[in-house]
Amino acid sequence: SYAGYDVTRYILLQLTAHAGKPLHEAFHDAPPYQGLGLRFDFRNGNVNEAIYFHRYKDGASELLR
Q1: Domain hosting residue 12, numbered range
Q2: Total structural domains in the chain?
């Protein structure tokens, strides 16, 4: 699954880039991450601000953010 791959890759990247730092601090210091199916951005706190937002309009799904 893309979600499992993205989460694992993101965590491993942060553990490698910020060795010795608590993981939650590494997330706050990390740049936004664009995975295969998920995006992550925790620079402004504990909420992922890079979540996809879609809407269904005129028979199609449209990416809002």
Answers
A1: 2-63
A2: 1
CA dist list (Å): 17 to 12, 48, 57: 9, 19, 41
User: Of 49, 8, 46, whose CA–CA distance to 28 is shortest?
Assistant: 46
Task: Locate 32 and state its tokens.
Answer: 């936004």
Residues in a beta bridge with 63: 54
Rounded Cα distance between 26 and 36, Å, is: 21
User: Distance from CA of residue 34 to its chain's centroid?
Assistant: 6
Say if residues 21 and 14 touch (Cβ distance below 8 Å). Answer: no
For 14-28, write each residue's pLDDT tens digit: 999 999 999 999 999
- Cα 53 from chain centre: 13
- Of 31, 37, 43, 47, which is closest to residue 13 (Cα–Cα)? 31
